Amino acid sequence: MPTEPLSQKEIEDRLRELPGWSLEGDRIARTYRLGTHFAATALVVHVAQIQEELNHHSDLTLGYDTVTLSVHTHSAGGALTELDFELATRVDRIAPTHGAA
């Protein structure tokens, strides 16, 4: 997957496809709320699996019933790339299976 930095327009277009995600500085981020701490922990493990598959890792924070991801591409100088949006898309696909809202 290309790690070329995306333009501001490409970032804005991709964010429109990912409700709940926002631009925070040089990163995209989202917080998921879950029903229990166990469900949040299970989501973290599932996200870690996806990150390993992509060889692309976010900052991942586990709260009592929340999971927050914040991501950009270190190898692209901290810019946003297609890889960041692929990770976000894949996490969005599996989050509801854990009861995330």
Topology readout:
Elements: H1 8-16, E1 22-24, E2 27-33, H2 37-54, E3 59-62, E4 66-71, H3 82-94
Helix pairs in contact: 2-3
Identify the notable features of this structure and list them briefly.
alpha+beta; 4 strands; single chain; 101 residues; four-stranded antiparallel beta sheet
The whole-number mean of residue pLDDT values reads 96
Q: Report the portion of residues in β strands.
A: 15-25%
Structural class of the helices, strands and pairings? Answer: alpha+beta
Helix proportion range: 25-40%
Report the radius of gyration as a whole number of Å: 13 Å
The major β-sheet equals: 4 strands, antiparallel
- Sequence of secondary-structure elements: HEEHEEH
Please provide a written account of the structure.
The protein has 3 helices and 4 strands; from the N terminus they run αββαββα. By secondary structure, it is of the alpha+beta class. It has a 4-stranded antiparallel sheet.
Brief summary of the model shown:
It contains three helices and four strands, in the order αββαββα. By secondary structure, the chain is of the alpha+beta class.
